[in-house]
Design goal:
Helix content: over 70%
Low-confidence stretches: none
Number of helices: 10
Strand content: under 5%
Order of helices and strands: HHHHHHHHHH
Shape: globular
Number of strands: 0
CATH class of the largest domain: Mainly Alpha
Structural class: mainly alpha
CATH topology of the largest domain: Tetracycline Repressor, domain 2
CATH architecture of the largest domain: Orthogonal Bundle
Length: 189
């Protein structure tokens, strides 16, 4: 992710971050459904109009790192260690995300908020699956396949859906490992 260079860009980025931080703090304290956008704007010391310029919906306040997430996802494929397969890189990336989301003091509280709020769960899934095209292109580039290769698209789709499976699972790590074992070795009943 690029760092804003001009004063205006830095100020805009700071406002964006202040809004996201205020929203998350309030949502974690009181619950997503118990906080209004006006309260978030006040907590960040901006108008609701300013909030709406930065975030098109209440749900988007929770997921303010969409571009950075896509960058790290694509980097997991492109910058994998020599000798590491694409599948292994995607599995390791997904496991690391799951582990951060379940770690105490890490993202566990955040993921509890998302899992416990149907609107956020649905928004997260749509947001996460938007990365499918970027991941498909990265897989195609790494394998020498055409950009819209159906096999690369299928792998991207299934790899991304693994995170949704993990989110719903009692044992997210096991869910990721099982899904990637099927992707790598096929279905073995």
């Amino acid at each position: 992710m690029t760092t804003p260079t001009s004063r205006r860009e830095r100020k805009k980025a700071a406002t964006h971050q202040a809004l996201a931080d205020a929203a998350l703090r309030l949502f974690l304290e009181r619950g997503y459904d118990n906080v209004g956008v006006r309260e978030i704007a006040e907590a960040a010391d901006v108008s609701t109009t300013t909030l709406q310029k930065h975030f098109p919906s209440k749900e988007s306040l929770v997921f303010d790192r969409d571009a950075a997430i896509e960058e790290t996802l694509v980097a997991a494929v492109r910058e994998r260690a020599p000798g590491t397969s694409v599948l292994a890189a995607l599995r390791d990336h997904t496991l690391a995300r799951v582990e951060r989301g379940t770690a105490e003091g890490g993202g566990a509280e955040f993921m509890t908020l998302v899992r416990g709020t149907p609107a956020l769960t649905e928004y997260w899934h749509r947001m996460w699956m938007r990365h499918e095209n970027a991941l498909t292109r990265a897989l195609a580039a790494e394998t020498g396949a055409p950009e819209a290769d159906p096999a690369c698209a299928a792998l991207a789709h299934f790899a991304l859906e693994t995170s949704a499976l993990a989110m719903r699972s009692e044992d997210p790590v096991r869910a990721v490992e099982a899904a990637f074992a099927i992707l790598e070795h096929g279905w073995r009943p």
